[in-house]
Amino acid sequence: MAATAATQIGDRLSGSSLTPIAEAPVGGFSLAGPSAHPDPTTHAYRQDLADIALAGTVIASHYVEPLECHLRRAATLHAAPSDDSEQLGELEAGASVRILDKRGGWAWGYAGGLVGYVPAAALTA
Fold first, then answer.
1. In the chain, which residues have pLDDT < 70?
2. Residue 100 host element (H or E)
């Protein structure tokens, strides 16, 4: 029987190009209830970006490896990129910050065991 342009999971074919589906289990995927997401206060993920260590656990548009930086001066860790947002903690000068994203004057990543935002100007180059 000739393959059609429709997806045929059982035959491990996909789309009009009839490309084999990489690493899909025979018979498809089992869907058994809601997904359990890791705690977002300690695991860095958003819809647009996530820590590469979370690939396969959360869905994001892009995955990145955190970049190790240090604070040149003491800074406050915030829940959002705003001085008016919830303060999650105070970080000392020299503290390690593992950054996943930097824009608009803020850096997002891990610091002090939590995920949050620090002013980008507080980071070493």
1. 1-25, 27-34, 125
2. strand 96-103
